[in-house]
Specification:
- The chain is α+β, with helices and mostly antiparallel strands.
- The protein has a domain of about 110 residues: TonB (TolA/TonB C-terminal domain).
- The chain has 21 helices and eight strands.
- The strands form three sheets. A four-stranded antiparallel beta sheet has the order 3-2-7-8, with helices on one face.
- A hairpin with a 2-residue loop joins strand 5 and strand 6.
- Helix 3 crosses helix 11, helix 9 runs antiparallel to helix 10 and helix 12 packs antiparallel against helix 13.
- The longest helix has 21 residues.
- The N terminus is likely disordered.
Length: about 500
């Protein structure tokens, strides 16, 4: 069972970089784009001219609907989403002019517009477009139309991207319900929606509901492919990573170990299928060891481990820190051995594993052991098709790996919003070639010296993957870092609540 966790602590964990190989080698695009694309396909206007038709007339007419759609599609494919949204809006106008009384065509045009607006970050406009589609479909009486489910899914992902998690969770619920009604209880099209629904619920502190959504996704894959299948092993891997993100480390460890065992049984003990779940095991171990609650529980003496009072006290961990660390390191070393023995392993996968192994040693204060792995990652990255981009993503700027935040930074985070405010300490620092921090200084944010001093002291615990030049780590100046603090408001007039404070971002570091 997942214990409810302070939302700010959850945010803090997210500043620790996810495993590099998972970022570089995860199949497909990000879930947000995948969900939006899967449910909001770009569709050509019904009256678009066939290939080889009269293009001269279309080119001569600047307000031709098919031509406007073609330009929208070209811009969308090119990643120019703002310009694509402008052309999609023109398609909507032309559809309303040329096809009055044909709601199906207008729905298609609006879905394309909403997709482009979403990808352009125009979330309010995308919301309006999706709501228009929903209204049109509902007015038609076709409540089982797949387009209605797609529109609700698109609206849900828009709310999620805009961090409006309460609205996102409700819309995901509607989209999933409509999907099940039209395509069956265990259809796989709902999987990306279930994942994002769970993430929305976590943001709202509704952990048990989130866990039910993730378990339902696992059940969907099991029903479709069986529990001795590669898709099921991949879903176990995904679930294990999710457990890590929400701080349920023992559940993550157990789930990821099952994933590794299943991959080994199905693909063989030397298969590259094992690399990502092994890396995930190491990432879980790293975060587990850095979690403040684990540190507190591990420090309890035998007498304090028994709760004698009404307020339950933290229970000691079932595994020692040394066991967790040993397992994490062995998992990474096993992943590195697999890619080293497989000449066909993708360069991005190899470089990612080597970089993560280097990260492990930096976090463990063994930078001299990290250096050979970083050098190898640098060399292998050059052999990738996009070698320059891969090197830049891995080593173009320092990457924050670990950080122990000030103990009291989120002490008041659970108080009513009107009772607290968020104060930020902006810091500039130098990341050394060994991944440590030198000469941090406050450069903005609150001037409250007590908070500044706490932030500067805590920043000495930070460890970074250093920037590399020509395969060698170098010192990097001008790195920025932001530490938030939840503090009580000093005064508040009676009967006045005022606007809620802004959501505190997690401590941020980067190049």
């Amino acid at each position: 069972m997942i214990a409810p966790r302070d939302r700010a602590v959850s945010l803090l964990r997210d500043v620790i970089t996810l495993p590099t190989c998972a970022r570089l080698c995860a199949a497909g695009v990000a879930l947000l784009v995948a969900a939006t694309s899967a449910w909001s396909q770009v569709t050509a206007p019904p009256d678009a001219p066939p290939a080889g038709g009269d293009r001269t007339a279309a080119a001569a007419a600047p307000d031709d609907r098919a031509e406007a759609h073609a330009e929208f599609k070209r811009l969308l494919d090119a990643g120019d989403f703002s310009a694509a949204a402008e052309h999609a809006s023109r398609v909507v106008e032309l559809t309303e002019r040329d096809a009055p009384g044909q709601p199906e065509e207008l729905q298609v045009a609006l879905m394309n517009l909403a997709l482009a607006q979403h990808r352009a970050g125009e979330y309010v406009s995308a919301e309006t477009s999706y709501q228009r589609v929903i209204g049109l479909v509902e007015a038609s009486g076709r409540l089982t139309s797949p387009r209605l489910a797609r529109a609700h899914a698109g609206l849900a992902t828009t709310y999620y991207a805009a961090r409006r998690y309460d609205l996102a969770a409700a819309e995901f619920e509607r989209a999933i319900g409509l999907s099940r009604r039209s395509e069956g209880l265990f259809n796989e099209a709902q999987l990306p929606l279930l994942e994002k629904q769970a993430d929305s619920l976590v943001e709202l502190g509704r952990f048990e509901e989130a866990l039910r959504a993730r378990r339902y996704a696992l059940n969907v894959v099991g029903r479709k492919h069986g529990e001795r299948s590669l898709p099921f092993a991949r879903e176990l891997h995904s679930l294990g990573r999710w457990y890590t993100r929400v701080g349920s480390y023992e559940a993550s460890r157990a789930t990821l170990r099952k994933s590794v065992e299943l991959f080994a049984a199905l693909s063989g003990p030397a298969s590259t299928d094992l690399v990502e779940p092994l890396a995930a095991l190491a990432e879980n171990a790293r975060r587990w060891l850095q979690d403040p609650q684990f540190r507190e529980a591990a420090a309890l003496d035998p007498e304090r481990s028994v709760p004698f009072h009404d307020i339950p006290m933290p229970t000691p961990p079932t595994l020692s820190a040394s066991t967790i660390a040993s397992e994490g390191q062995k998992a990474l070393e096993a992943a590195a051995s697999i890619v080293a023995a497989n000449p066909d392993a993708p360069p991005a996968l190899v470089a990612g594993v080597r970089a993560q192994l280097g990260d492990w040693y930096v976090v463990r204060d063994q930078p001299e052991r990290a250096l050979p792995h970083y050098r190898q990652a640098w060399l292998v990255a050059a052999t990738a098709a996009d070698g320059a981009a891969l090197r830049q993503s891995l080593f173009g700027a320092p990457v924050l790996l670990s950080y122990v935040a000030p103990e009291s930074w989120n002490r008041h985070a659970q108080r009513p919003p009107e009772a607290v405010e968020v104060r930020l300490v902006d810091i500039e620092l130098i990341v050394t070639a060994r991944g440590g921090v030198r000469e941090p200084r406050a450069v903005g944010g609150t001037g409250e010296q007590r908070l500044v001093s706490q932030a500067l002291r805590s920043l000495q615990t930070a460890r970074y993957r250093p920037r590399l030049e020509e395969g060698e780590p170098v010192e990097t100046a001008g790195v920025r870092f932001t530490q938030p603090f939840y503090v009580l408001r000093e005064t508040e007039p009676a009967g006045q609540t005022g606007p809620p404070p802004p959501t505190a971002p997690p401590p941020q570091g980067g190049g």
